[in-house]
Amino acid sequence: xxxxKPHRGTIFVEDARVISHAAFAADQYVLRxxxxxxxxxxxxxxxxxxxxxxxxxxxxxxxxxxxDPSTGxxxxxxxxVGTGLAALSKAAVGDEISIVGPIGNxxxxxxxxxxxxxxxxxxxxPPMVFLAEQLGRQGTDLRESLVxxxxxxPFPFTTVNSSITVPGLPASCSAAMPDxxxxxxxxxxxxxxxxxxxxxxxxxxLAKLWLQAKSASELGKVEIFACGPEPMLKAAAKVAALFSLxxxxxxxxxxxxxxxxxxxxxxxxxxxxxxxMKRVCVDGPxxxxxxxxxxx
Length: 296
Fold this sequence. Notes:
Layout lengths: L4 E3 L3 E14 L3 E7 L1 H6 L5 E4 L9 E9 L4 E7 L2 H7 L7 E8 L11 E7 L3 H13 L8 E5 L9 E2 L13 E2 L1 H4 L5 E5 L7 E2 L2 H10 L3 H4 L2 E6 L2 H13 L4 E4 L15 E6 L2 E6 L6 E3 H4 L4
Parallel strand pairs: 8-9, 8-14, 9-12, 12-13, 14-15
Antiparallel strand pairs: 1-2, 2-3, 2-7, 3-6, 4-5, 4-7, 5-6, 10-11, 15-18, 16-17
Helix pairs in contact: 5-7
């Protein structure tokens, strides 16, 4: 593995090595790479631009699900869509993969809002897992916080029946992510597919249910973080507006260069009532929900 080559002082080009590559239902994969430079600098919400195969010149942006600076390992969850990720799914243990990262501005949790509601949909799940584990490592008290995940395909992990009580949610909503359960962070799952222990509905509806059970003083301690497809992000912004809560969104967007040069990932963002085009890759991917969806 070659050492990372600095780009703009913060982004590194690195030849990473495949440590493990696990396949799950519905063409989902969890890829673990030895990428010390990326692992050392990654924060929740950042991503890497990955070369899927030597014959495919265009890289693909993948959100980072986990980064361990002590081992130099980085995890990515992705679902195969198109030829690039189909080629990446063939990568075997020991293979080298070129990555550019970490890229982007991550989440900025507030000390004034100790209760974190983290909402992930589909391939928007990874930043929520990263954020929860990052906060846990930093010593943040997450006993009142909650991670919610929604998916319309089987979840890319074997669910467990949670032993952590979540006030405001029915006992029948009991399925949880084992990695978070094992470190004492509450999580719950939602789907329209009738999966056992999951809330029967959208993940943002589950978020609303949890928030409705809180008093005004309890709501004053909450901030929301979300990542997922655009309809889910819009719904999350509306939930945040309904309860007058601060909310940060991690946007998903098609990218070409991913380092700010092409502006192909630019989206309209509203600041002080004025619209400006912002690049998701380097200006984001995290933005205030009210700036992205001011009409929410």
